[in-house]
Amino acid sequence: MVLPIVVVLGYVLPAQAQTDVWSAVNGPDGGTIVWDLEALADGTLLAAASNGVHRSHDGGLTWERFSNGLTGLDVRDIHVDASGTVRVATYGQGLFSLSRQTMTWIPAGLESTFALSLLEPEPGVFLAGVNGDLYGSIDGGVTWSLRSLQGFNAAVYSLAANQTHIFAGTNIGVFRSADTGQTWEFTSNGLQEYDVRSIDTNDSGHVFAGVKPVFGGCSLYRSRGNGNFWTCVQPDTDPLTAALVRAGEGGNLSVGGFQNLFRSTDEGDTWQVHRVSASNVQALLSVGSALLVGTLGQGVVRSNDNLVTWQLSNTGLQSDVTRIRSQPDGSVVVTTTGGLFITRDLGLSWERIHPDQPLVRRTTDIVMDGEGHFLAATNAGVWRHDAATGWSLLGPPGSPYVRDLDLGADGTLVAGFYAGVWIYANGTWRDAPIVDDDGNARDIVAVHRSED
């Protein structure tokens, strides 16, 4: 049975080698997560995204891929050190630095770690936060050693320093160090919840922490005593998650929340709110008279009129595609880390499904029901599209992260999630956990319902 297959392959491959089988398509652009934005000395802009590094030479109007050499493409942080060397933290493959000779990325330590943040508190001294630990280097990043957070394992999301201390924002609270990261102490008195996603200090030495609250608590805190005590300074409009905290000079403070950018001139006592995107604000960069914002799934948006209006600046910022589905009418739909895009000309042009009310969240699968409605699996349940009303949440209860969908001929929908499957039929959801012999539920990444 094996021999005929080998013979056929040996015959076909040389003939196909004479023809270009694959060709690149344009986009879709903008369906990606932008974690960080940085400017280099020559004016080049870099964007750390969920699908690599992107580069812009025109102030963020257009972008191009800049990931040659990276083996980990989920890039969480960009750091330009005192010597001008550019380093990036990748989630899964550690650190990389940019070679000035080849303009490609080369490994720079902490291989196979899930790196999240970088800080250079002194020239040649580095700290790197990873998912589970903190590392330090005193030789310019050549070698790294573990730095204990009082014996705790923590995801170190963010690092910042003032004149006397270094601060680490982690999933279990704030830690600080008075000896350049050699030793640490827990300093979270006043925080209602401890999942600290962003931290920064200003020129007065005051510290600000952005939190992801689980139970509806405060999401933004200020400490004027080096973290000894924290006070809630959250804007009246709840940002849900303060994914970005940037402290400037003279009391200026910028905070990225859900859909909005909040700005204060008095360290958070009062706020101005600016509607920016359809998702979380993750990164911020001023470029001349323009302000660029990186988002959680909508790429980059840009304002050039003092935050009055915003435009997408995603040309060339290609999406992180998770699934491709062809449709009966010849169109093709792709799911991305930032929602759904459709093409009707085989990739020459793309648009979001319902662009005026887009579903901007990580999507993993899409099917079409018998009535012609799209059903999308997302990191927050299954969503249903109606041409007139847009997107609405279909379920299941609790809006779990749905990995995969299968739609039967009778209209029964099966959704795989972290503890088995949910089944939707006749307008009702029922769960069917999948539990192994060890008693633990299984995370289901693919489902298929037999029609037999």
Give an overview of the whole structure.
The protein is mostly beta strands and 452 residues long. Helices cover 3% and strands 45% of the residues. The protein contains one helix and 39 strands. It has one helix at residues 2-16; strands spanning 34-39, 45-49, 52-56, 64-65, 75-80, 86-90, 94-98, 105-107, 115-122, 125-132, 134-137, 145-147, 154-161, 166-170, 173-177, 185-186, 196-201, 207-211, 220-223, 231-232, 244-247, 253-256, 258-264, 272-287, 290-295, 300-303, 311-312, 321-326, 332-336, 339-343, 351-352, 363-368, 374-378, 381-386, 390-395, 404-407, 413-417, 420-425, 428-433. Strands 9, 10, 11, 12, 13, 14, 15 and 16 form an eight-stranded antiparallel sheet that branches. The two termini are 29 Å apart. Mean pLDDT is 92; it is low at 1-16.
Summary?
With 452 residues, the chain is mostly beta strands.
